[in-house]
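pasting input
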Amino acid sequence: MKKIGLIGLGKMGMSHLAIANQTPGIEVAAVCDTSGPLLRVIRKNTGFECFKNYEKMIAETELDGVMVLVPNAFHYDVSKYCLEQNLNIFVEKPLTLTYEKSSTLAAMAKERNLKGQVGYVNRFNSIFQYVKKLLDANVIGEVSNYINTMTGGVVLKENSRGWRNDYEQGGGCLLDYGPHCFDLATYFFGSEVSVESSILKKVHSTKVDDIVYTTLQHQNEVVGLNYINWSDPSVRKATNTIEIMGSKGKIRANKQECSLYLIEANNQLDLPEGWSQTYVTDLDTSVSYYLRGEDFSRQLESFSGLLNGSVQAPISSLENAAAIDRILEKALQLNGRKLNG
Amino acid sequence: MDKIIFGDNQFFGVNHMSEQKAIKQAQKFRTPEDIFKTLQYVNDIGIKSFMFTTHTQMEPVLEMISADPKFHDFKLYPCMPYAHKYANALVELGPFEMIKKFTPGNTIMSGLKGVGSLISANPVPVMQLLVDSEMKLLKDNNVHGIFLLNIITDLLLGLKMYDMLYEFASYVETKYGVKAGFFTMNYAMLHDVLVNKLKMENPIIVSNINKIGFRMNPSKQTVEDSIRQKDCKTIAMSVLASGAVRPSEAAEYMESLSGIDAVLFGASTPQHIKETKTIFEKIL
């Protein structure tokens, strides 16, 4: 049993806390948040040790790992401190929004032989894992190109105030939705990637973008258009869809279903010629504890495996998260912008 | 409790298997009248229980139901809290109007209950306030049970705040004189907590139960073992796993699994509703 502490109990924090508390192989030994009233409620109604200061929590609790769930702007400092204390880390996405800082964290973890995982939860979706398997098995042959779409209805009216309208705080469609979208691209096609073009368009926001068109080239082979829009009123919740073209066929997938088109049948994997369909209900999705989708549970089961040694390499690594931050940086740079960090 | 309970997912574009299917379904139910028409059919063919999330779109439908004498024996099972409703109201009406809209009776008293709760770090009064505010919209309706949605049940389970589950059940029973029920995606865990830890008698649990084991956590086998203990009332939902299981197969499975007390299902066409009803009535 590995002991972990949670730093930051905002909306994501509470759900991570519940999930972590029920994930086999880990035990939540302490939690930390700056909000006094929130800590009072938690102290009074649950069995968790509570701290207002994370340094104190780390000093006074025996821990194997921490989950860094604080606002983006504090990811770097808190994560760095935890690594310095020789603690394994799970950090919510995006890692730091700065390639330099993110790679510093990745290098530190490597040097100290510590495990690091970043909250790119799409990698734990059963359908996307199935797509990855199809690609690894070369089912659609050589991949030439893809269209990767992420849409949602977050900003539907004038957006002129708050963090959503501020790049420095991780606002804008590029920095908020972009990481998940680009992560899916790097998951499937590798994180050795160049940003060929990027158009950032405003619709409702005054200082940031609402629509993003970014073309990427992976390993000098696969080209892809990443279309991201957080101002789509027709979409009930954030939706990722990807269409992948290969020499032997094509894949179209979202979190719930995967359509596969094959020019010729694949007898090895028993896949027919033409279209075939796989639904999430066809795959094994059981989790030890379910709160808000299997993906979030499986993400922490994987972190537990990482701490306990049953998972060797993180499915969502610090290095990969750094590569995503580089894509974001480059996309901003092509539009004459740079974060102060 | 009736053996056949009609659900509401199809009215609001929820389908766990396919977004396209969800969109198609939602297109059929654009107005409260569309929803009411389907419920009239449901009532006419003898399905007398309806379980629904307290969406804002349901408000006019509830009024139509209470105004129609043909629905006099139609039982309602509201499921709460519908969190988006509060978030949207906060944005659209502002905090003061929102409090007025949702707090029953005396606003000042409700405010005090909430503030007191904050100071004492005791979430029970807040829970009671939320239940009361949802029930305000249902004061003219024939409510037979009040259910806690899985996002809250499972959050409390995850945090091991088991007492809150108990408090919810006893508040609902003493204040409204009806049984409480719990939705969950963690049947085995909840079953253990309600029956063994909280010693509740015949608690009502609503959970995914289907032939392919979709969202039966931690595993199909464990859930089946808990159901077979028959020490709670089990309402099966997602019996067709959003369309992945054929109705006849689903019925066969239900029959083999003794311990299911009722089936909660949704469908959007009269033909599907009637077919599903007939199939499950036979085996329950």
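fyi Chain A has two domains: 2-122, 125-280+318-333.
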